[in-house]
Amino acid sequence: MAENTQYTEDNIRSLDWKEHIRMRPGMYIGKLGDGSSADDGIYILVKEVIDNSIDEFVMGSGKTIEVSIQGERVTVRDYGRGIPLGKVVDVVSKMNTGGKYDSRAFKKSVGLNGVGTKAVNALSSYFRVESTRDGKSASAEFSRGELNDQEMLEETSRRKGTKMTFVPDGEIFKNFKFRPEYVARMLKNYVYLNPGLTIMFNGEKFFSENGLKDLLSENILDTDRLYPIIHLRSEDIEVAITHSRTQYSEEYHSFVNGQNTTQGGTHLAAFREALVKTVREFYGKNYEASDIRKSIVSAIAIKVMEPVFESQTKTKLGSTDMGGDLPTVRTFINDFK
């Protein structure tokens, strides 16, 4: 017989923000890993910090982001507006606190849920945030989410912007090691999606003038392209397409609001459908969908207002609507010319 266990008030427990993140890190950053795979948790931590700097660039503030990884220590510095000095601690340690809930300020932002940097803070043995604006500076240091020190400088010559430094917690990320090639690939995607942005990584410069066209140019040799890359873009959508002479599989690179959606989602499904529809209508023939898409190498990026992803790691888009006065994701992509 099953043992009759007691269920009383003593069984009910409330966790504070950092305890919950540390107890269930997978809910916030996906798998943990040791850095040997590109989607391991330590790279998600890097991405969450960089996403905030990218949002500043998108809003027209700061054209350069500096990323440094020395051993286990990661530093990300942008030259955006800087976090409001009185909120430096709250922004990285109070759940659901951020400037992106107001759609007017960050209507097509990546980090909309106010969780990202809190997760980085809670999962780091050392975390430091520093903000400079209006000739003043504020900083705070944490360990595993616990505030250890904070400082306010009433006068500083530092350039405006935000600087975050963290060391992933070895208690959670066992025997981890950063692979520079995985970080470099992530940073390249950022510059492809944000032409005009410069990212410096350990002294190496990443920059793109032609967006997704540059992404495909790097992924498929000129001699392997069946035809020159078709590159189209509008305010909320960008597409690059070619076909390979040698590979038979379909290859897609998809993005939403600057986020690499490695598992696709509603936008990729709509793109694959629109591609077939366009070719059929142009030639007036009902070609097989698999024949049209075979050997394709393509990339699509869209911007969605308040996107809904299927997990905190944001690798698959679940939104069916573009937001605002725009139509559904499917209609928007199908009607794009």
Automatic annotation (TrEMBL):
<keyword id="KW-0413">Isomerase</keyword>
<dbReference type="InterPro" id="IPR014721">
    <property type="entry name" value="Ribsml_uS5_D2-typ_fold_subgr"/>
</dbReference>
<dbReference type="InterPro" id="IPR020568">
    <property type="entry name" value="Ribosomal_Su5_D2-typ_SF"/>
</dbReference>
<dbReference type="Pfam" id="PF00204">
    <property type="entry name" value="DNA_gyraseB"/>
</dbReference>
<dbReference type="InterPro" id="IPR036890">
    <property type="entry name" value="HATPase_C_sf"/>
</dbReference>
<dbReference type="InterPro" id="IPR013506">
    <property type="entry name" value="Topo_IIA_bsu_dom2"/>
</dbReference>
<dbReference type="GO" id="GO:0003918">
    <property type="term" value="F:DNA topoisomerase type II (double strand cut, ATP-hydrolyzing) activity"/>
</dbReference>
<feature type="domain" description="Histidine kinase/HSP90-like ATPase">
    <location>
        <begin position="37"/>
        <end position="172"/>
    </location>
</feature>
<protein>
    <recommendedName>
        <fullName>DNA topoisomerase (ATP-hydrolyzing)</fullName>
        <ecNumber>5.6.2.2</ecNumber>
    </recommendedName>
</protein>
<dbReference type="InterPro" id="IPR001241">
    <property type="entry name" value="Topo_IIA"/>
</dbReference>
<dbReference type="GO" id="GO:0006265">
    <property type="term" value="P:DNA topological change"/>
</dbReference>
<dbReference type="Pfam" id="PF02518">
    <property type="entry name" value="HATPase_c"/>
</dbReference>
<dbReference type="InterPro" id="IPR003594">
    <property type="entry name" value="HATPase_dom"/>
</dbReference>
<dbReference type="GO" id="GO:0005524">
    <property type="term" value="F:ATP binding"/>
</dbReference>
<dbReference type="GO" id="GO:0003677">
    <property type="term" value="F:DNA binding"/>
</dbReference>
